[in-house]
Amino acid sequence: MAPFGYACLLLALVVCGYGIGASLYGVRRARPEFAASGRRAMYALAVVLTAAMVVLEIAFISNSFAFNTVADTSSRTTPLLYRVAAVWSSQEGSLLLWAWLMSLWSSLALFLTRRRMRDIAGYATAILLGFGAFFVSLMVFYANPFATTSPAPTEGVGLDPLLRFPTMMIHPPMLYSGYTLSIIPLAFGMGALLARRLDADWIRGIRRFAFAAWLFLGAGILLGARWSYAELGWGGYWGWDAVENASLMPWLTATAFLHSLMIQEKRGMLKVWNISLVLATGTLAIMGTFLVRSGILNSIHAFGGQTLGVPFVTLIGLLIGTSIYLVVTRRATLRSEHRLDSLLSRESIFLANNLVLVGLCFVIFWGTYFPLISEALTGQEASVGPPWFDRYTVPLALVLVLLSGIGPVIAWRRATLANARRNFVVPCSLALATFAGLELAGAAGKPFASAMFCCAAFVLGSVGQEFVRGTRARSAMAGEPAPRALVSLVRRNRRRYGGYIVHVGIAVLFVGVAASSSFQHATELGLSPGQSARVGAYTVRYVRPTATVTPRYDTAHTGSTLNLGAQLDVSKGGRHVATLNPSEGYYASGEAAQGTVGSLIGGQPVSHIAMDAGITRDVWTAVQPDIEAPALARIVKVGDRTLPPEDGILAVGYIAKSYLRNPPQAQFHFIVSPLVMWIWIGGLIAVGGGLTAIWPAPSTLRRRAAALARTRAVRGLARA
Amino acid sequence: MSLLVALLTLALATFVVAVVIGPLRAGSRARAKHPTEVERHGAAADAGAEDQRAAIARDELARDELDAAREAKYREIRDCELDFLTGKLSPEDYRAIDAQLRAEAIEILDRFERLTTDS
User: Fold this and answer.
1) How far apart are CA A287 and CA A292, in angstroms?
2) What pLDDT was estimated at residue A705?
3) Domain range annotation of chain A
4) How far, in Å, CA of A440 to CA of A301, rounded?
5) Whose CA is closest to A254, among A507, A458, A502, A510?
6) pLDDT tens-digit profile of A292-341?
């Protein structure tokens, strides 16, 4: 079936070429049938790439090791669920995933806008198909997912142990959905510039897709952070890794765009700013995709092997050059229709928020790309670590959270000072009360963390006040009881109140970040069985060693041949808190040169962390057993020398027994982090708020609201 | 390439072609049923027909734009009312802004009506 898969790629390339031509002809010559044909080319691309994806999935599920990608990233002993996800763990498969998701989301966007923006949609279709052609070309000419080897190997290498984690299955599709959704507003933005029409219809058309891109990117970033925290052995959720940063930057510019878009919608202002944000978001999404394939990264995120740096740099250069050219040559159509009515207005707060978000993006961009470029040019390793990023991003994050609390209590157009003062009483009181509480608890010694807690309290106060007042107003107007009034209020004002919920989620998330960063107890412990150590208020006792052996032919085998670990008892004030079972997994390397026993356990070891998560704190630990201890090393050496390959597993069993009988001292990384759970809870709240904001109102409700507003507009003017 | 692969590829390609040329065939059928000015009166009529198509397209775009502007204006009126009800605007400011927004809404409705009447 590999030839059919490759044939799908070739067909996809032809479809893209035709679609680009038909769309451009249709829009330039006002021939709607050609524009429609171009749009259908995108639908057809989605069908063709779905067929290709199905072929590759079947290859992975059925262990067709003739496919190079299957042999390189899967194996008979990889669990089925991970085999399905292994498709996108390779360069080739991930390119197919990218192109496939792009075709699906683009098809949806073009279908939903098929009766609108006819002068723009043709250009947008051509641009989106251009992206499709780019990614399909990469697969056809550089990284073919359907390349085969004959004769086929009997077994594959298996999925990287670090990727055998549930959130890693969904993290790439979510992130790629965010990236691919980001280029839809870019395509429509370029189309609008080409058509010289950046108006209310354009805003209405792309707003939802910009929001969807923001939502998926955010969810993908959170899932990645969760994987980092729960799977990797360093105990953190964000390391300012270049690839993490590359996904955060388009999310920041998308956040800025969603806010400033409202100003353009209401006041016809910030057109240049908005179109620049849209183009920047899409370009940053491509740059994020480029980073892991450029060959300049040595990271768990990087795809090894062939580098696709040159084609991507070419595309990025083309995007930047075209964007600048279009904005400069179309600046006459981008003039603002109005000016700011007042500095004390929601528009001003949004502007400030935009500056902070773009500032954050700039700092992260500088910290991410400058060292890479410097290293590429000079050959000298340059690095910018977390302390550098924290120094600049923490103060900006504080300002951002504060602004997210101020915005909801300020009116559009202009607010009176007296009203503003009155509206700030509750949020400021909450913030002050929080500060007082921190002082009493002796926790005010960490200034940034304390400031973040106070700002978050301010946000909760202002948003809570909005919900209470809005519910009261709705209840008084419609005579509804409070709970029903609240539901009606949110249903009728989804964008506003969904946005407020997002603000709450982000504030809660930052509380978790501030607490877990500033009040964390982390320590390295060297313990033998029976020994205890104090970590802050907790006592950790090494109860007993643990060891398991799972041969490759065992159907329960999930990857590691040998697992060595420990059982720990954690207590506080004499009271049992948790029992933790961290371990280190030792995997087969597949390198026969390592010897009979060495090859069974000589692969990259993976830490299986143990954690007791709670609302107030997480107790986290990872273990590094001393597998190089003389007694264990001797078993490996003797086994390598004397045992035939089929009996190597017996020596591994003996290593396990020896470890249990006479365990060497193990090193434990032990962390107590307050409020980490609130990072994930805050993220879920933000996602919920985003879904609320983006959810379409029922059409009857929309029609009724429009008719009502029309009538009231006429009556009001008659009265005036 | 095996026969199965060839047949699958051919089937997929046929499907793609059918999907993609659908609108072109529909356009041809429509022209055959209602011959254009070109087919009746030649090249001069073609320019007229093209101008007519362009004018229709411009009107449609203008209608879509006004529709979107109207929706946005209604939302602004509702937001303003909610700002007042939740204590963010004084009664004087609310009356002034509300009147301004309603006037802008009437202007959009008038332009919409003129466009509908003219076309």
Assistant:
1) 9
2) 59
3) 1-164, 401-519+681-719, 529-664
4) 44
5) A502
6) 766 555 555 555 545 677 888 889 999 999 999 999 999 888 888 777 77
| Secondary element (H or E) of residue A434 | helix A417-441
How far off is chain B from A157, nearest CA to CA, in Å? 28
Q: Which chain B residues are Cβ-neighbours of A201 within 8 angstroms?
A: 61, 64-65, 67-69
Looking at residues A215-243, what average pLDDT do you find? 89
List the single residue in A119, A415, A717 with the smallest CB-CB distance to B102: A717
Token pair in block for residue A291? 């980073």
**pLDDT at site A268:** 86
Query: What's at A646, amino acid-wise?
Result: E
> Do residues A93 and A133 make contact, with C-beta atoms less than 8 angstroms apart?
no
**Nearest CB to A199: which of B53, B57, B65?**
B65
Complex ipTM over 0.90: no
Q: B115 to chain A: which residues are within 8 Å by CB?
A: none
Residues paired with residue A666 on neighbouring β-strands, in sequence order: A527
Q: Does B51 touch chain A (CB under 8 A)?
A: no
pLDDT of residue A718: 47
pLDDT of A10-25, one tens digit each? 999 999 999 999 999 9
Do the Cβ atoms of A231 and A162 come closer than 8 Å?
A: yes
Q: Domain A1-164's class?
A: mainly alpha
pLDDT on residue B38: 47
Contact (CB, 8 A) for A39 and B24: no
Which residues in chain B have Cβ-Cβ distances shorter than 8 Å to A411? 80, 83, 88-89, 93
**Per-residue confidence band for A50, with pLDDT thresholds at 50, 70 and 90:** very high
Chain A, nearest residue to B61 by Cα:
A117
For residue A49, what is the nearest residue in chain B, using CA coordinates? B12
Task: Give A286-297 pLDDT, tens digit per residue.
Answer: 998 888 766 555
Peptide bond preceding A166: is omega within 30 degrees of 0, i.e. cis?
no
Q: Could you tell me the pLDDT band of residue A242, with boundaries at 50, 70 and 90?
A: confident
Instruction: Flag if A710 and B74 touch (Cβ within 8 Å).
Output: yes
Q: Give the B window 9-28 contacts with A, CB below 8 Å.
A: 9, 12-13, 15-16, 19-24, 26-27
- Contact between A601 and A586 (Cβ < 8 Å): yes
Sign of the CA dihedral with A558 first, then A559, A563, and A567 last: negative
Distance CA B6, CA A715 (A): 68
Residue A575, Cβ neighbours under 10 Å: how many?
6
Query: Please, what is the angle between helix A242-267 and helix B43-85, to 10°?
Result: 90
Q: Distance between CA atoms of A510 and A448, rounded to whole angstroms?
A: 11
Tokens standing for residue A416: 């009176």
Confidence of residue B56 (pLDDT cuts 50, 70, 90): confident
Output the average pLDDT for chain A. Answer: 87
User: Between chains, do B15 and A47 touch, taking CB under 8 Å as contact?
Assistant: yes
Contacts of B74 (CB under 8 A, 6+ apart): A705, A706, A709, A710, A713, B105
pLDDT tens across B79-104, in order? 999 989 998 888 888 999 899 999 99
Please give, rounded to a whole number of angstroms, the shortest distance from the CA of B79 to a CA of chain A: 8
